[in-house]
């Protein structure tokens, strides 16, 4: 086997709460993360030595700044530093959008390299490598539906919640995650999610209750700075979405639907205004 290609799904946040600030400067989170079928494609080719990365998507670096490169470096280091790879990224997931586009590419590199190198690592070992690369990377290794705590890397997997229609809109501006957390006021988070109630809704597959209860406290920063995010959420609700929220630190906004016709109508309506609009659905956990 000389190369492996994997699909790397995006994620949305069905909820996102910040429970405090840590001594290391990061924030403690409690959030429900959900994979969706919008995905990039990552191809990894085994080489004798060295690293290279190729991606023609705007604003994606083709060097060591790319988190997918960092994933390859971490994998090779864990293998004793021998070997090399060429990485090709075919991207559909928008960047700086709160959809884990970089993190899911990094997870895809880890999975592809594990296959290429004869599966030297089990799932837990691979997750330990992932934690050193980025907070969302461990979730992206398997995806599905999970409660994430800590900085987002302490995962409890939840029952399957696949097959829910999702429309995603990425407005034409990026959002810096460090900027959002730097400007977050822990005493003015707005309405916070009731995480146990949301988990209960997932367990009984009550999409309406889940959609009504979705909250994202980072909207207190991003939506305040960009009023367009609030307008997109209002438009989703007017078009029949069961609920609408910003994903992660933004700027992408999604709506959940239980009706194909309404979801298609919303998709077409948003495409009249925005370039990056995606009609997708929630997907289940991938376990190798």
Automatic annotation (TrEMBL):
Keywords: ATP-binding, Isoprene biosynthesis, Kinase, Nucleotide-binding, Transferase
Enzyme class: transferase
Domain GHMP kinase C-terminal: 198-275
EC number: 2.7.1.148
Sequence ranges assigned to domain GHMP kinase N-terminal in this UniProt record: 66-144
Biochemical pathway: Isoprenoid biosynthesis; isopentenyl diphosphate biosynthesis via DXP pathway; isopentenyl diphosphate from 1-deoxy-D-xylulose 5-phosphate: step 3/6
Catalytic activity: 4-CDP-2-C-methyl-D-erythritol + ATP = 4-CDP-2-C-methyl-D-erythritol 2-phosphate + ADP + H(+)
Active site positions, chain numbering: 11, 136
Pfam family, one: GHMP_kinases_C
Binding site for ATP: 94-104
GO molecular function: 4-(cytidine 5'-diphospho)-2-C-methyl-D-erythritol kinase activity; ATP binding
UniProt keyword Transferase, yes or no: yes
Any GO BP annotation: terpenoid biosynthetic process
Functional description taken from the UniProt entry: Catalyzes the phosphorylation of the position 2 hydroxy group of 4-diphosphocytidyl-2C-methyl-D-erythritol.
Sequence similarity: Belongs to the GHMP kinase family. IspE subfamily.
Protein name: 4-diphosphocytidyl-2-C-methyl-D-erythritol kinase
Species of the source: Thermoclostridium caenicola
